[in-house]
């Protein structure tokens, strides 16, 4: 059965998050809270774990997976970012935004979009998730926890554990998530001198970035 980690939302217990990080290092998939909704997450460089994550989610290689990063320097290691893109990223992070950027050579080819060679990246503001990323010491590969045939993400640690008790290694319980998706912005056009493209309006406000919908 999946391990349940009950984490204080304001003062995350690092000993518990270290145990959760050990499950990631062993190839486990975790259900983790974010500043938008629960997500499935695994070690970036573990192909078997990434395949399991896609299977649980019910998506193929054409579906953009997201890298959860600790900070902008880490994000920039996995994406090609020019000065204009960097200024927008700095204004928007950490927060409930997902950015589509051109993948760098650091991203395994199997993880980037097969035709566009792009990758989705997030720098979340969720305190528990940031602490987990710190314990893990590297980005996590993630996707929103929407099960096949469903239209909304699962929310709440107990329902998630009951639904996925034999599919995930652990569930992190730091309270319910807002259950509102991230705002997704495609920043690839900025590299050609064009404005970013709004892919999905979500929790992140465009006005905060000086953009309009």
Describe what you observe in this structure:
With 213 residues, the protein is of the alpha/beta class. The protein has a single domain (3-209), classed as DHBP synthase (Alpha-Beta Complex), CATH 3.90.870. The chain is built from six helices and ten strands. It is globular and about 50 Å long. The model has no long low-confidence stretch (mean pLDDT 91).
Q: What is the CATH homologous superfamily assignment?
A: DHBP synthase
Strand content: 15-25%
* Rg, alpha carbons: 16 Å
> What's the assembly state of these chains?
single chain
Number of strands: 10
Q: Which CATH class is shown?
A: Alpha Beta
Number of domains: 1
**Tally of helical segments:** 6
Q: Distance between the terminal alpha carbons, to the nearest Å?
A: 44 Å
Question: What secondary-structure arrangement, pairings included, does this model have?
Answer:
Layout: E1 3-6, H1 14-25, E2 30-32, E3 39-43, H2 47-57, E4 66-68, H3 72-78, H4 83-92, E5 97-102, E6 118-122, H5 127-136, E7 140-144, H6 157-163, E8 170-173, E9 183-186, E10 197-200
Parallel strand pairs: 1-8, 2-8, 4-6, 5-9
Antiparallel strand pairs: 2-3, 3-7, 4-7, 5-6, 9-10
